[in-house]
Amino acid sequence: MGTSNQGIIEAALDETQLPLNVVVGVRREGDPAVLTASDAKFASVVGKWRHHILDDIIRHSWAWYVR
């Protein structure tokens, strides 16, 4: 299971509390019906892998950015 682009946008908006103008364009020929991100393939290649929760990644990234 992965995280959709929309899920990432919503998590970032929740953390930053900033207005963001998200523009969703029309689907182009060849675009996949569903697009998600997952670390499962990477984890299967590298073996032991520390999984990070998306909210934690965004929180830490935002804290670093605004410091």
Notes on the protein architecture:
The chain has 67 residues and is mainly α. It has one domain. The chain has three helices and two strands. The protein has a two-stranded antiparallel ribbon with strand order 1-2. Helix 1 (5-16) crosses helix 3. The protein starts with a strand and ends with a helix. The model has no long low-confidence stretch (mean pLDDT 86).
Brief descriptors of the model:
about 70 residues; mainly alpha; two-stranded antiparallel ribbon; 3 helices
List the helices and strands and how they pair.
Layout: E1 3-4, H1 5-16, E2 36-37, H2 40-46, H3 54-66
Antiparallel strand pairs: 1-2
Count all strands and give the number.
2
Helix content: 40-55%
Total number of helices: 3
Please mark out the parts with pLDDT under 50 across 5 or more consecutive residues, or reply none.
Answer: none
Residues in β-strands, percent: 5-15%
Structural class: mainly alpha
Mean pLDDT: 86
Strands in their spatial order, largest beta sheet: 1-2
Order of helices and strands: EHEHH
Number of domains: 1
A few lines on this structure:
This protein has three helices and two strands. It is mainly alpha-helical and 67 residues long. The protein has a two-stranded antiparallel sheet with strand order 1-2.
